[in-house]
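For concreteness, we quote verbatim a single protein encoded this way:
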Amino acid sequence: MIPEFDHPTFRLAVAQFDRVAEAMNLETNLRERLKKPQRSLLVALPIRMDDGHVRVFQGYRVQHDSARGPSKGGLRYHQDVTLGEVAALAMWMTWKTALAGLPYGGAKGGIQVDPHTLSLAELERLTRRYAAEIFPLIGPDKDIPATDIGTNQQVMAWFMDTYSQQVGFSVPGAVTGKPLSIGGSLGREEATGRGVVNVTIEALRHKKIDIEETSVVIQGFGNVGSHTAKIFNDAGARVIGISDVRGGIFNPKGLPIAEIYQRHRLGVPLQDMNVGDRLTNDELLALECTVLIPAALSEQITGDNAERLRCRILAEAANGPTTLEADAILDDRDVFIIPDILANSGGVIVSYFEWVQDVQRFFWNESDIRQRLQEIITAAFHRTLHFAEEKKTTMRMAALMNGIDQVAQAHTARGLYP
């Protein structure tokens, strides 16, 4: 383990890779190359706060691999961001883009900050300073950032403008997740949630479960969780439990998701809505349901609580929500897992669409985007399912083996320079 990357999430990503590489009998030299990020940048970000004093924030950008194309990955603003976490997320993004068949490698960025403690002006200064510091590494043909936890369309607009100011002309394709007015794509905001629903519906069909008989529990009600809940509700499923960082609400007959979605967007906390029984996030994970969707942070399902889960399908909308110990427990209990690099790939798929539209200067309608997303992500699901059944392995192993194999083939074909 590289000391700078020593973090539980990076250890999980490497342990997953080691297990898959052993099962694949991956060539030793390739194992060493794919385990370490290609490039990592740490930047100090001095920002003048509104009261006049200067505060220095820590920023990161990690490019895990670019053998298949420019690297791609989100930008996370969170107080617990570390180099190790960012490196793990970049590695998972490499496997995710390869599994989906996108011409990208994996990257991730982050700033160690609680964005809710900053004013809008401070947030803009921080974003622009970060964009300027990592400018040499990024660009539409190098590395394309996107939204993630703690960032949104406005942050991407500031980032794109800063990049464009550096080169002297507008470059919409430098980032994805932008507003429509500067080259964003229809359907991007809901893309990850829509992809989660698309693959989960395929899993329900595989298990011969009707959507009308499906109960859904979602941990996390940010961009991904809220859109997942809304789209599932519109599809006819019964969303019985949802939560945010403060806790959740539960109604076995189904929650009024349309009302909750609108009120939550206005800033009303879930537990202040009188529409169900209150419960903790731990209690929410243990609810009996057809589908459980962790859509919050990493390592929420562990060896300590995996036995208490009462779902038939686990769809991982978050990155790395399940530890190796929990994986083994859930496999023994015959819980059908849709792994993160497959379940939450809708975001990067539609980011790819946005990048293509920016490069071509030709924009698609929303029905085309939804159809293309569904085609790509369901095809990836069925490739993974077929491989898992053929090799008698888990969906996680099948997804990782497929993604890693694509990257390994690219390295083998390109050779080693010099």
User: Anything to note?
Assistant: The first helix runs from residue 8 to 24. The chain has two domains: 3-170, 191-338.
